[in-house]
Amino acid sequence: xxxVLRLIxxxxxxxxxxxxxxNLRSNQTLSFEISNxxxxxxxxxxxxxxxDIDTNGEYLLSGDSVGGVSIHQIxxxxxxxxxxxxxxxYEPKTGHKFSINSIKWFPKDTGIxxxxxxxKCVQVWDTNEMAAVxxxxxxxxxxxxxxxxxxxxxxxxxxxxxSNHQVKLCDMKSGSDTHTLRGHTAxxxxxxxxxxxxxxxxxxxxDGKIVMWDVRRSKAAVHYFDQFNGNSDKGHSGSVTSLSQxxxxxxxxxxxxxxxxxxxxxTTGENTFTNFGTAACADIKSVxxxxxxxxxxxxxxxxxxxxxxxxxxVLTGQHITDLSGHFGRINxxxxxxxxxxxxxxxxxxxxxxxxxPGASDKTxxxxxxxxxxxxxxxxxxxxxx
Length: 385
Fold this sequence. Notes:
Helix content: under 10%
Distance between the termini: 48 Å
Strand content: 35-45%
Shape: globular
Oligomer: single chain
Largest sheet: 4 strands, antiparallel
Strand order of the largest sheet: 1-30-29-28
């Protein structure tokens, strides 16, 4: 059977060749634009500061500058219709007193999520009750908080980037912070768990350092990323403002106050010296960057850059385009792993949806291509912890 006939046969059976879907999504992610049919609305007039999407692409989670939390259902958009996506849940009295800087779903279960705030706390949430069930308090502002997507023995650990120069590890099982990682000399902006190794954690700070930790070891720092691949312990000349990684964890991407983006080979820990040009906004504060999934290998980097999102090819460093639509500083972007979509949140109090041209007319087909067996909504299972 010819390739064309096989493709038609698979299409009729709703089976899709992975290479075909890969190439299709590569082309789609290269041409994002603001959705013409879908508007994400909010019940608050405050800046949206952090967002996340669950692995099944069902729910958008967001936090704002006064500690409020919203959840939007994003997987039931009507085809050829104007969609106003209103919050499914909104909780203004979250227990946080100040801005939420990081908000993340538990990777295995939308029944749990975490939030980190400038009020020096990380909270663990029960989504069914829309209430915080546990709280970890620190002596500094929490700029980032992350859960491991690899699972296993680190699936219950929260890594928190704290302004007092430390990375704190918190155990959701015991309800206590179990370990303090010391190696930074200024506030820690970002943390990220490796997609390659469940025990590897990477942190980045305002001291310019990017550090890899092995959380099993007492002296946990195992590598300092060196921008010159020489004898320096700094990845950037100034504050490191974002960390992101490719789907398989082969490459780590960082941006800094020095207006540079760097690509790091995670097998060697060395700078690849990929030339991204002058690529980042000269800001000391962290932003949430994202790398596309199911896209042209090894992916596209979506980097907040003032009021725009700059898009780069991870492998070549080529600046592909800037996504313009916000009127204030973009605080974070999040890529939908289920279908080719990008969400961005900004200090202009809006959340925007970016998608391929004409994507609203193809929603049903895209969902069929990526159809998976979903877990129950707001699962309350404790087995994964």
